[in-house]
Amino acid sequence: MNTDIRIRAFRATDDPDTCQKFIEGHRTVLENHGITKVTSSNNEWAKSNAVFVVVVETLDGEKLYGGSRVHAADGKTPLPIESATEDMDPKINEVVAHHAQNGTGELCGLWNSREVAGLGVGSLFASRAAVVIASQIGLNTMFSLCSPATVRFNQWIGSQVLKSVGNEGTFYYPKIDLLATAVFLDDAISLNNAHPSEREKMLHLRDHLNCVITEQSPFKKVEVNVHYDLVVASARKDEFHIKKPFIKEAV
């Protein structure tokens, strides 16, 4: 792997070509783990103005190493966590609708290629960047449905297990022998519950959306020069403050 990478953020509808690369890379990772059906991997998100994408890529943009997505609650389309868990516990819809009034969304679609496995590049770094862009989109809170391996990353960035849904926050998803944990970041702006070092990094990135930082992997003593490009040009802070609850349309 090249020691220089770029982490870039954009609205999904602003860059359909990169969205397609994201879809293909995410699908490959899921299939390698024997997973063929995940609500957050539904490709319709690429056509939504309420979806924002973070990609970890080569500097020329030709190759993706991983990434994440932020789905803003828009009052029209349920968040992936709702679609995934509402049949097991419909309370998730009420919880999301309540927080949507002040701007909420979901960090989802997290993946990284085998090439960068263990470096944190496609997991921790992409999660961190997703929280950084929340302020541009006007999201004060964020949900996530985590695999056992990514719960700790979400806790580092300030999320807590959402014990009011499922079985103390857990669900058997995406299949019966896999456990997923619902987490909730109740302060996506000041990030007071984040680990101090993570909070410092995220607030620094908010003040320096375009910068180059030499990052060290949290698990391997490998340094990577990360070129951050986190300005979402079309973002509006008041776009996703939904004053009425989501009502599912009849099929």
Descriptive keywords:
about 250 residues; about 25% strand; alpha+beta; Aminopeptidase; ten-stranded mixed beta sheet
Unreliable residue stretches: none
Individual helix count: 7
The CATH superfamily is Gcn5-related N-acetyltransferase (GNAT)
How far apart lie the N and C ends? 46 Å
Summed over residues and divided by their number, the pLDDT gives a mean of: 89
Strand percentage, roughly? Answer: 25-35%
Describe the structure in your own words:
By secondary structure, the protein is an alpha+beta fold. The chain has a single domain, classed as 3-Layer(aba) Sandwich (Aminopeptidase), CATH 3.40.630.30. The protein is 25% helix and 26% strand. It is built from seven helices and ten strands. The chain has helices at 16-32, 80-85, 91-100, 124-132, 134-137, 151-156, 196-207, and strands at residues 4-11, 51-57, 64-72, 104-112, 141-146, 160-161, 170-172, 179-185, 210-216, 223-229. Strands 1, 2, 3, 4, 5, 6, 7, 8, 9 and 10 form a ten-stranded mixed β-sheet that branches. Helix 4 (124-132) packs across helix 7 (196-207). The protein is globular and about 45 Å long. The N and C termini lie far apart (46 Å). The mean pLDDT is 89.
